[in-house]
Amino acid sequence: MKKKLACAPAARTAEYERADAQVRGDEGARGQRADFGMKRAAADVRVDARVRGLGGDRGMKKTKLACLLLLAALVLCGCGKQAAVEAPELLPAAGVASDICAVRRGETSVPRAVDAWVSAYTEELSFPVNGVVGEVPVRAGDRVKAGDRLIVLDLDSVREQYEALKDEIDATRRVNDWDFRMAETDIAILKSELSRLQRSGADARTVELKELDVREAEMNLAHERETRALSLSRSEKTLSQLAETLENDAIVAPFDGIVAREITVSEGSWITAYDPLVCMADDTRLRITCDYVSAATLRVANGGVYARIGGERYEVEAIPIENADYVSRVLAGKKVYSEFEITGPADWRDGVQAGDYAALIFVNSYQADTLLIPANAVLADAAGKYVYVVGKNGERVRRDVKLRVPVGAIDAQVLEGLEEGERIYVTDK
Question: Which of 158, 140, 159 is nearest to 150 (CA)?
Fold first, then answer.
């Protein structure tokens, strides 16, 4: 064993000499030193292969460890002395040659859609007087004609009151006429007595007392006339109210149509004047209804408003809401809706019916004639907004621009920096 081990250094030295011969020359260069080290390591491996078994497992582990340490040192040495490489300037993605468009002139807007529905003209009906319901001959969904009775009041007691009060007023007038004639007769007698006293030369005291009697009688008659006239006026007013009640003994349909909602009163129910009881709908007068739209919203829609129903476009016009009506509805806790009249096309009734879904389109920020580019062609950095213009040789040329991009718009309005027909790159963002 000792003899065999003595041969290992000599073999290793021979390998080293062959490696030295291959890298002889300028050993100061970094590349040659690295090559020399690699070749020397390879020589160690070959020597280790030759003496494998001579040193046992212990020698093998030492050889591998030496190779790993040597390789690590060479890698660290090479990385530390490499020259720094500058990263290329990254340009924002601007698509490829096919992602090019021209600056164009056209119209732009920002449409806003609002859910709506087609509804029939409706009218709520009520009694102008208090009363008790006697009959309800219709129900929700019934089709009725103009003049049909929808709710009838039980007015038997009212009719009895009317007849009794009318008789009472007639009797009062007869009594008043009799009483007034009697009072006038008494006054005439007093005046005759006064005249006789004056002609007979009665003393002044007697004549004065008679004159006082005449004036008192005249004053009493005037007061009685006034008092009874006031009482009669109150009775006549009550009679007029009863007559009005009798004349409005029923709610009648104002037009041909449908009872739109369920009637919540029944026979024997007490109703209050002007409380809505029946809702009539005229399905020949259709309109578009949506949640309340303010006047400010309509002003912002400078491009107008139109409707989409079943994929077709319909022209519409807002039906204004009186401010007093709006306030009264809000104070009463009622929901306020906006309505739009359908104005076109001429044959719109053929494709629209009550209950259809509609989308109201409010055309905001409308510009009729302006320079436009796609909004996704616009880039931005700290200096502001810019685009890439196609140069003479197809290169990308940065161009700073001033734009107006309304929220939600797919096109940007060019204010400054581009001319109609210029070609720009469009990104895919």
Answer: 140
Contacts of 308 (CB under 8 A, 6+ apart): 314, 358, 359, 361
| Consecutive H or E run containing 341 | strand 337-344
Interatomic CA distance for residues 152 and 245, integer angstroms:
11
Return the sign of the alpha-carbon dihedral for residues 347, 348, 351, 355. negative
Q: Do 114 and 364 contact (CB within 8 A), yes or no? A: no
Name the CA dihedral angle for 259, 261, 265, 270, rounded to a multiple of 10 degrees: -90
How distant is the alpha carbon of residue 16 from its chain centre? Answer: 88
What Cα–Cα distance (Å) separates residue 425 from each residue in 6, 101, 372, 389, 394?
Answer: 77, 7, 14, 6, 10
Question: In terms of Cα–Cα distance, which of 308, 307, 368, 313 is closest to 340?
Answer: 307
In the block, tokens 């006789």 appear at 196
Query: Which residues face 396 on adjacent strands?
Result: 390
For 127, 130, 136, the CA distances from 242, given in Å and listed in that order, are 13, 11, 22
Identify the three-state secondary structure at position 7.
coil
Distance CA 423, CA 102 (A): 4
Q: Can you give the length of the chain in residues?
A: 429
Other Cβ atoms less than 10 A from the Cβ of 192: the count is: 11
0.85 cut: is pTM over it? no
3 state SS of 271:
strand
Q: What is the pLDDT of residues 64-117, one digit of tens each?
A: 666 566 665 555 555 444 444 454 444 544 434 448 899 999 888 888 999 999
Q: 311's torsion region: left (phi>0), alpha (psi -120 to 50) or beta? A: left
What type of residue is 357?
Y
Three-class SS of residue 37? helix
Output the furthest CA–CA distance in the chain (Å, rounded): 197
Residue with tokens 């500058």: 86
- Decide if 242 contacts 169 (C-beta within 8 A): no
